[in-house]
Amino acid sequence: xxxxxxxxxxxxxxxxxxxxxxxxxxxxxxxxxxxxxxxxxxxxxxxxxxxxxxxxxxxxxxxxxxxxxxxxxxxxxxxxxxxxxxxxxxxxxxxxxxxxxxxxxxxxxxxxxxxxxxxxxxxxxxxxxxxxxxxxxxxxxxxxxxxxxxxxxxxxxxxxxxxxxxxxxxxxxxxxxxxxxxxxxxxxxxxxxxxxxxxxxxxxxxxxxxxxxxxxxxxxxxxxxxxxxxxxxxxxxxxxx
Length: 241
Prior knowledge:
Layout: H1 2-31, E1 55-61, E2 70-76, H2 79-87, H3 98-111, E3 114-120, H4 122-128, H5 130-143, E4 151-155, E5 166-170, H6 178-199, H7 207-210, H8 216-225, H9 236-239
Parallel strand pairs: 1-4, 4-5
Antiparallel strand pairs: 1-2, 2-3
């Protein structure tokens, strides 16, 4: 009888501990809904398992715009600040308000090991095509890093050509990697601020509101005024003008 009692007591304790573990996991998923996937890239042959890897997240913005450059950011974050950044709201930049992005971009830059911007011009977009120009902007951001990463996490499914650093592509990476999400925020804020400055010279295109994207007012302005030197003439709405 005593043995049976001890067995039931032990089983009850085990179930309570399992319940607490599941509850904790649910709380983590609730607090950090965008980053519940662990990132454990494989080690290269030259990488010692005992040494931490320096990981950079890379993302681009402005790929679908009609006006202005495509801009990328590369971001390296210390391990100890990543949880704090997630709890502060760092996630896919498209899910954030402009005010939240601006606030978080300042915070990301303040704590990052390194964070750099790369861009490809309108001429390069028209000459290379938007995909290759986007990859070029990402490569430039990576090469500008003062701290060379061991691994680059690249948003999307396209590898960056001729990059000597190991890279892993991640579809919807800005919802799966804190490094990519941070890069998407920094790149978005940087490009938006650039377009706002350019809007002062080209007020007719409503750039303050559309940030260079093809809204109805923007397309109407193209039909009425024609394309500026900063419009992507390889994009059909700009060619029609």
